[in-house]
Amino acid sequence: MGAAQAAPPAPEARRAADDWLAAFNAGSLEQLQAFAERYAKKEGSTPQDYLEFRASTGALKVLEVRESTPLQAKLLVLAQQTERAMLVTAEMDPAHPEHLKLFQLEGMPTPEKYQPARVALPQLMADARAKLDALAAEDALSGSVRVAQNGRVLLDWHAGLANRSANEAVDAGTQFRLASSNKMFTSVAILQLVQAGELGLDDTIGKHLPDYPNKAVAAEVTVRQLLTHTSGLGDFFGDDFDQYSASLKTLDDYVQRFAKDAPQFTPGSQDSYSNYGFIVLGRIIEAVSGQSYYAYVEQHILRPAGMTGTGFEPETVKVPQRAVAYTKTNGRWTRETKSLPWRGMSAGGGYSTATDMLRFAEALRGGQLVSPALLQQATTAQNHKRWYGFGFVVQGEGREHQYGHEGGAPGSNSAIVVMPAQGYVIVGLANVDPDAIGNVVNYIARRLPLQ
HEC profile for 96-110? Predict the structure, then answer.
């Protein structure tokens, strides 16, 4: 018998990361599938998920190698369309070094040396308008954008079609679905009740919802954890959402359907975006205030801020200026209905205008909705990875500090950014898929001059 043949050298983690990047950047489903098969990647995002993700990010450029050992590689990359940095981690299985044990992408703050240069306001507004006009001309975007500084409007843009079948153009009064951006309304409502002494951030669900169906969750999960996406309560948007969405007409309908699910992790121990957690916050608002979520938001947020074009009417109700949602299907825009909830709720799905969302941001900045001290707390990082406050996405420090929210679902995209040190507010709303408007809003935010 001859000598045993030596096993071929196992692929290194860096090679796995590079192979994935090559497949991703090629936008090839076949190459992504071949990658998954070669490295026995079974968990996490699928090849199709990555392909859909690439449609919003564009190709990924390697900025630097953070770590590279035979069993682990970490690459800092920048998405060309979104200009967002991400960390690609490839970890091989020590027992089977040719197989992946872990492969993940996670968002990261972009190091200062990779950030774009700031641009003078007149030039930036001209650049932004040209960028928006080009996207509209390509039929890649329909929506509204407003940029203001201390209430003075610097850019007011709208283009595209609110209703393609009726050939109705987007105008200043067009109402767009906010998706998750109206989590900010829910947060402000909770903070108002905290400010009034009717609610505590560390109160448990059970204190205000004694009939909550899951007693273990009710006794442990706090308002603070719900606000910061650290509750572990998860989501309700599954592939079959359209099959039961029409039955979810009230916030309590959601609770009765999803409360039985156990937390995904020990509450408070880590971060995980939770739409269902914001449904529970909506129920707490109802229980504490004695009003429906919708009545409370109308009375205590929309009216004080002068927001006359914002609401939550069901999809079955005709709202004259509400844009039709459109998603890309086989390269063509088609009407989107599958992912729309029966009506907007405390986790998202209401609708508004760019004018109204600017009014909301100005009312916040002016202390009309919550105290400056409470707003400061809410717009400071409060979770483990420091990307979320109390109902607000946050980033940056000092003069680069900003807060706001984004929302995205098939047929809707919203992005609101507030830069408090300079008084800037950027609002973008669209009736097409993410991140058509979000990319432009963030393009502007990264280049606004910091006086």
Answer: EEEEEEEEEEEEECC
